[in-house]
Automatic annotation (TrEMBL):
Cofactor(s) this protein requires: pyridoxal 5'-phosphate
Protein name in UniProt: Aminotransferase class V-fold PLP-dependent enzyme
Keywords, in A-Z order: Aminotransferase, Lyase, Pyridoxal phosphate, Transferase
Upper taxonomic lineage: Bacteria, Bacillati, Actinomycetota, Actinomycetes, Kitasatosporales
Gene Ontology molecular functions: transaminase activity
């Protein structure tokens, strides 16, 4: 039977759907890949040992090749439903089991997640729901040291907990266990410790904090996102490491990122609980709609099985001996870097680094931390091809530069120290960083909640943060201004600036 004729459909104009540049005519694959590689050329290098933040490089090309190939095998597998894709459950049981064998206890249960933030979100949700159902807590609080990762504040914001922040020791930068204990109340759902803290790389007194929480019937989470798959192998290599896993009495959950010192590609993390009853509070289930029954162990629903497969592959490829050897390489780099830093005039290493993270500040001739020198030093090092992460002052803790050591940096310490010495001389020759007192005074009067977009855009433009132009070549003046702003105004300005980078 002939098909009935129909009017030609009206094609929407491209501009009615999205900007014309967003969806051009089709182009050859080779051309597109070349364009992507060209875009990457402007980024900080992720291999080669010159980027000391965000990047965790084993320095082993075969690991990169394996993770990329393993991801490809499982890229189209949907991790949403392990009853349809049973391989997902098998791989996850294997990965979580490997983490539990190192940091767990008999009966521990966990989940594979997309990264540390998701692992922390889930641990906070589990603690909130556990406190509600077991102890009847309706206005839950989250007790955490001031050095705990910002992801805990994000979790509290998303999940409706009140953060209770306690100070850390100003000399060691370790959490004050007594202050944490004193902050725990009947409303506390969760107490937090870091192993180690990201900002300064020091290990909190996990056993003391966990004991204080257990004495009050409160759960305790250890954020071992950055140290969980490094410190145990450092101990295996013969270095003394304080216990921090679930075997420590009172520790009820722990988060471990495998895309850090597990050397998997991002994102790959595990959140582990003492038992299945605790993990149950992390789950979301819903049957009150006409679609398929929903049970989500993690925040994500649909997710590629590729991330899980590549994490599984690299764990099995490196194994105990491989991770121990890599941890030893990082320790050797630290043993060379720390005395080298301390020998440089005016540099002070902060706290007692637990292994792979080092933070140092720069003193003025008066012997006090100098924000301008810290920021100029970061700029000078960046001009010489190194990325060291600037960290601003906070609650009396000094501004500093953060370094993340990896196996790939083990043969870069000597040139790094040479360039640091040269950069330090250049930084001292720079014009001092100053913030216009009138601008700082004005900023102190601004209410972040009532500022209009135009107000914020004007302030950012004055500060040199114009999203259309990107970051300035030297960031010291901009970061010095941000350092002078009240925290909530700083957050508003940073939010608007990042938003301006994503213009569509």
């Amino acid at each position: 039977m002939p098909r009935e004729s129909a009017a030609e459909p009206t094609e929407p104009t491209v501009s009615a759907v999205r900007p014309a540049s967003a969806l051009p005519p089709g182009r050859p694959a080779a051309q597109l890949l070349a364009e992507l590689r060209n875009l990457r050329a402007a980024d900080a290098p992720t291999r080669g040992g010159r980027t000391f933040a965000y990047v965790y490089d084993a320095g082993l090309p075969d690991v990169d090749e394996l993770t990329e190939a393993a991801y490809g095998v499982f890229a189209t597998v949907n991790g949403l439903d392990p009853t349809v894709f049973p391989s997902v459950a098998q791989l996850e049981n294997d990965v979580v089991g490997a983490v539990s064998a190192i940091l767990g206890v008999p009966g521990a249960q966990g989940s594979f997640t997309s990264g540390g933030t998701e692992s922390i979100l889930l641990a906070v949700k589990a603690a909130r729901d556990h406190a509600r159902s077991v102890r009847g807590v309706t206005r839950p609080q989250l007790v955490l040291p001031s050095t705990a990762h910002a992801a805990f504040h994000k979790a509290a914001h998303y999940l409706g907990l009140e953060p209770v922040v306690v100070p850390v020791d100003p000399l060691t930068f370790r959490a004050d266990a007594r202050a944490v204990a004193n902050a725990i109340t009947e409303r506390t759902a969760l107490a937090v410790a870091s192993a180690p803290s990201y900002a300064h790389g020091v290990l909190d007194p996990v056993a003391e904090i966990a004991a204080a929480a257990e004495a009050r019937g409160v759960l305790c989470h250890v954020d071992a996102c950055i140290g969980g798959w490094f410190l145990p192998f450092l101990a295996r290599a013969g270095l003394p490491i304080e216990p921090f896993g679930l075997s420590v009495p009172g520790v009820t959950s722990i988060s471990v990122d495998l895309h850090k010192y597990g050397y998997a590609h991002k994102g790959a993390s595990v959140v582990l609980y003492r038992d299945a009853e605790l993990r149950r509070h992390q789950y979301f289930a819903y049957a009150g709609w006409p679609g398929y029954p929903v049970v989500n162990p993690t925040v994500q629903g649909t997710k590629s099985g590729g991330l899980l497969a590549q994490a599984w592959a690299v764990l099995h490829h490196l194994g105990h001996d491989g991770y121990t050897a890599l941890a030893r390489r990082v320790a050797l780099a630290a043993d060379q870097l720390l005395p080298g830093l301390r020998s440089l005039d005016g540099i002070r290493v902060l706290g007692d680094p637990a292994g792979s993270l080092i933070a140092f500040t720069v003193h003025s001739s008066a012997g006090t931390p100098d924000l301008g020198l810290v920021l100029h030093l970061a700029d000078e090092m960046r001009e010489r091809g190194w990325y060291l992460q600037p960290q601003l002052s906070c609650d009396g803790l000094p501004p500093n530069l953060h370094l993340t050591l990896t196996p790939a940096t083990s043969d870069r310490v000597e040139p790094l120290l040479a360039d640091l010495a040269e950069s330090l001389t250049a930084a001292r020759a720079c014009e001092p960083v100053t913030v216009d007192p009138a601008l700082a005074e004005l900023a102190a009067t601004l209410d972040p909640d009532t500022l209009t977009p135009e107000d914020v855009a004007g302030f950012l433009a004055f500060a040199g943060l114009d999203g259309a132009q990107g970051l300035p070549t030297r960031t010291a003046p901009v970061l010095a201004l941000l350092d002078a702003l009240p925290p909530r105004l700083k957050e508003r300005m940073l939010t608007e600036f990042v938003g301006s980078l994503f213009r569509i």
